[in-house]
Specification:
3 domains, 14 helices, 8 strands, 49% helix, 11% strand, S04_starv_induced_SfnB, oxidoreductase
């Protein structure tokens, strides 16, 4: 489809976008291979990132490469044939991809979140089926957030149970990152008793429409548009009881937020790298510096040092948070879950501030020419400013403060 706003129905899509048409997906063996594949793909995706953003050219081919690479299946449990990589590895995968193209890195974030839901709440039969889909290269999107409600957890999409045990799904979702490119769309909805469930719906289901109406200033190619659900039939074995996730210690929110933090860290690293390259190759020295090149200017050197400290601190916090999640996964208790959640909150708050600061400082250190629209260096700041609006860092700081000062464990609402 074109980059313009469009609606795709099942009839219009045809069969060409199914996973079989993409070819068989590789199965990654371990963490080391996953990181090597992510590094290679990041290098590949970096080359066209600026043009894709400028033209709002949706990254279908790149996502097919991602599916075929096996990276989307790296968290599938070993018992089901996956690499079951650590969260530290997963966070680094996202950081690497985001350093190359923040929009592209954002698209599979929900994929891994909803793979995690299956791991936590799926029956043995559901796990066998869906993990098999993921290993085959199928992609999960998301239909989670809603506009016009009281707050982010005021979910009004409904799953109505039918006499035969199946469900009918009705509602409208916004900010549905990944849905346009998905094979399956996990939909967050409430049943008659108001409990939260996730319905896994095929992308071509009758009554499901994905509208490419995303017009954000940043993350332009995520296609985070609208999903409309008009009496969509859902078999009972495609519905998972997500509300049970929050009835005890859980890492659902920590895992989701860890990936957001990794994306912010990647944006910061990518912006710093672009600034370094620009100053080394394109910037002129300020006449008062007395040096032949801008890279010799001691004031610029000082600023680059400050920015590098910020980026390194963010990456250190990200690694520490990921290891805290891995530790909690190995022995999940209320205390270990709280430690992981707080560590991730600290990493996310720091990464958000760093991404915005470094992507803005790119222009400060690079000078007037860097503001040329044709260079599209502003995509880093636009991506940072847009992505960091997902949830307010100020509330993360509140929960960290309450935990440190009063020992109050963070809430189990899935957003921390």
């Amino acid at each position: 489809m074109s980059a313009d706003t469009a609606t795709e129905t099942a009839a219009e899509r045809g069969a060409t976008e199914t996973a079989p048409g993409r070819g068989a997906a590789k199965v990654i063996a371990d963490d080391a291979e996953a990181l090597a594949v992510a590094t290679a793909l990041a290098d590949e995706f970096r080359a066209g990132a600026a043009d894709r953003d400028a033209e709002r050219r949706l990254p279908r081919a790149e996502l097919d490469r991602l599916s075929g690479s096996g990276l989307l299946a790296v968290t599938v449990p070993a018992g089901h044939g996956g690499a079951d990589v650590t969260q530290e590895t997963l966070a680094e995968i996202f950081r690497l991809l985001a350093s190359a193209d923040a929009s592209l890195a954002q698209i599979p974030q929900s994929h891994f979140v909803y793979v995690n839901v299956i791991r936590r709440q799926g029956t043995a039969e559901q796990q066998a089926f869906f993990f098999g889909e993921v290993l085959a290269g199928r992609r999960f999107g998301n239909a989670q957030s809603e506009a016009g409600t009281k707050h982010v957890q005021d979910i009004r999409t409904r799953l109505a149970r039918q006499p035969d045990g199946s469900y009918v799904l009705t509602g409208v979702k916004q900010y549905s990152t990944g849905a346009l490119f998905a094979d399956w769309i996990p939909v967050l909805a409430r049943t008659e008793d108001d409990t939260l469930h996730v319905a896994y719906v095929p992308r071509d289901a009758e009554g499901l429409t994905v509208v490419d109406d995303w017009d954000g200033m940043g993350q332009r190619t995520t296609a985070s548009g609208t999903v409309r659900l008009d009496a969509v039939s859902v078999p009972a074995d495609r519905v998972l009881p997500h509300h049970l996730t929050f009835q005890g210690p859980q890492l659902h929110g920590a895992v989701a937020q860890l990936l957001h933090a990794a994306i912010d860290a990647g944006i910061a690293a990518g912006a710093l790298s672009e600034a370094v390259d620009f100053v080394r190759t394109k910037s002129r020295p300020w006449f008062e510096s007395g040096f032949e090149t801008a890279a010799e200017d001691p004031l610029l050197i000082q600023r680059f040092g400050e920015l590098a400290v910020q980026v390194r601190a963010t990456e250190a916090l990200l690694g520490a948070a990921a290891r805290a999640v891995d530790t909690a996964r190995a022995g999940l208790t209320g205390d270990s879950a709280a430690e992981a959640s707080v560590a991730v909150a600290a990493a996310k708050a720091h990464a958000a501030a760093t991404a915005v600061e470094v992507s803005g400082a790119l222009f400060e250190v690079s000078g007037t020419r860097s503001a040329l629209n044709s260079l599209n260096l502003h995509r880093h700041w636009r991506d940072a400013r847009t992505h960091t609006l997902h949830d307010p860092a100020r509330w993360k700081i509140q929960h960290i403060g309450r935990y440190v000062l009063n020992g109050t464990p963070p809430p189990r609402h899935g957003l921390l």
